[in-house]
């Protein structure tokens, strides 16, 4: 007769047996703005392609011990020959449930994995809004959230280093 492995009893044993989980509980548009000052001209024939700038930010907010809101902020500005063609601002967010996540893994999961899950939906909203505004759909390139996270960490370390060296900061 084969033996079956025994799991430790009690709450501590249950936590060890349960793997870490990241669950999207809901996702939603928190804020959306599309300004189209060139309407109805939009993309007229013979015009230069617009110069497009995309800025991205990720913010998190705790909604309790095991729930967090992650908000992906996208700011897109398009210019044609120094004239603003359109400005799009989108905050797309989700509520994420986290179970059995070690504390040292919490920030990377919230600032890398969660926005990676939200991004395809936000990208689609941007494409639809630009298309509905009279422009070709803007398909934002995939975002390297790992690089964005590392840049944020580096900026935070530099800010700490500057405040430590600044005698006016108390």
| Rg (C-alpha, Å) | 22 Å
The biggest sheet, with number of strands, parallel, antiparallel or mixed sense and barrel status, is: 4 strands, antiparallel
At the third CATH level, what is the topology name? Bacterial Protein-export protein SecB
CATH architecture: Roll
CATH homologous superfamily annotation: SecB-like
* Percent strand: 25-35%
Uncertain regions: pLDDT < 50 for 5+ in a row?
A: none
The CATH class is identified as: Alpha Beta
Q: Structural class given helices, strands, pairing?
A: alpha+beta
State mean pLDDT (0 to 100 scale): 85
Helix-strand topology string: HEEEEHH
Span between termini: 70 Å
Summarize the structure.
The protein is α+β, with helices and mostly antiparallel strands and 170 residues long. The model has no long low-confidence stretch (mean pLDDT 85).
Question: Would you mind describing this structure in some detail?
Answer:
The protein contains 3 helices and 4 strands, in the order αββββαα. The chain has a single domain (19-152), classed as Roll (Bacterial Protein-export protein SecB). With 170 residues, the protein is of the alpha+beta class. The model has no long low-confidence stretch (mean pLDDT 85).
